[in-house]
Amino acid sequence: MISFAIVGHLARTDGGFSLNDLPGSGGRMDVLCRCVNTSLFLSHDVRRDVDCYLVLCGEPAAPKTVRFSGNAVRSLSPDERSAGALIKKALDIPTGSEFREAAPGVSVRKGGLLRLMAEHTFAVLDETGSDVRTAETIPDAFILSDHLNFTDDEESLVTMCPRYSVGPTCLHADHTITVVLNELDRRRCGWKSTNR
Amino acid sequence: MISFAIVGHLARTDGGFSLNDLPGSGGRMDVLCRCVNTSLFLSHDVRRDVDCYLVLCGEPAAPKTVRFSGNAVRSLSPDERSAGALIKKALDIPTGSEFREAAPGVSVRKGGLLRLMAEHTFAVLDETGSDVRTAETIPDAFILSDHLNFTDDEESLVTMCPRYSVGPTCLHADHTITVVLNELDRRRCGWKSTNR
User: Fold this and answer.
1) Which of A108, A120, B10, B83 is most buried, with most CB under 10 Å away?
2) At residue B194, does pLDDT exceed 80?
């Protein structure tokens, strides 16, 4: 199983945002919707071995974590609005300390990065890390930040995590996920890396 | 300059689609909006050296081509709705045989793949091609199809183009663009490909 966790620093923690304004009313929920897309979608298929955790840190009830499970998700289309509608649905149900399913493959609980870090051995994806292509082995759980940098508190939580970069240019979180999954696909399928 | 051309087989060719339903009313315009995003966006920056051509083949006035020019585009945000609004604006102006600007960096003209092919030396990105990582040199212009395969007529147009694949799994068009740009970034910046 491969896990991606994306921290949405301003992302709303109730369903009170508009699907017509995911960036504004959702606290850049569009970024998280695109991360759901790149984590889970193949052409005409879904990556059944991927879980995507959205760590929502915005108003009014932070932190909450929404989990999209590739092996169970249905009714998810690739467009941002589709993921946004499922996030909204998850945030509209009563939230407890354990994951509760709001729709097939979409669950929500209270808590954020601290709790997730106790459950997974994460690597951080950011531009300061070592090249993921040159790594002998690649982890199976990754943390990324949204359009904002990690806060000081978050940095102190992830300070011991290995860090990987996907290339020489600083990419959006969703694009970074695409590149990591391509590297994982290639290794799994034995595609030789290069002959250059 | 790097160019991506994406064929939208059902994509509307007038502005009569809803930003609240890009997949349905727009003829899978969401696919094309995501291709604009992955072609042009870096983290907190725009790829000034990329042009993204959307070849729209749907009702009622096909074909039309909308061009997003990275070196001139403004007022474009990463969310699908933002690209969709600019496409809609382009499709709402009178369209002639030459590109006409509807917004900074966003232009439209009549004509489709046949005309574009006379202006660029394209490679096709699809799963049957050779591995882009192992190519001695990489082209600077690429054609992709949306969620549908190329038609027989399109296949006959691109039959002489070299074909490249980005990996062992069949990806969405926008994800494919991300992986190609990562490879181009790495080569431009001299990142060694691998030590495995």
Assistant:
1) B83
2) no
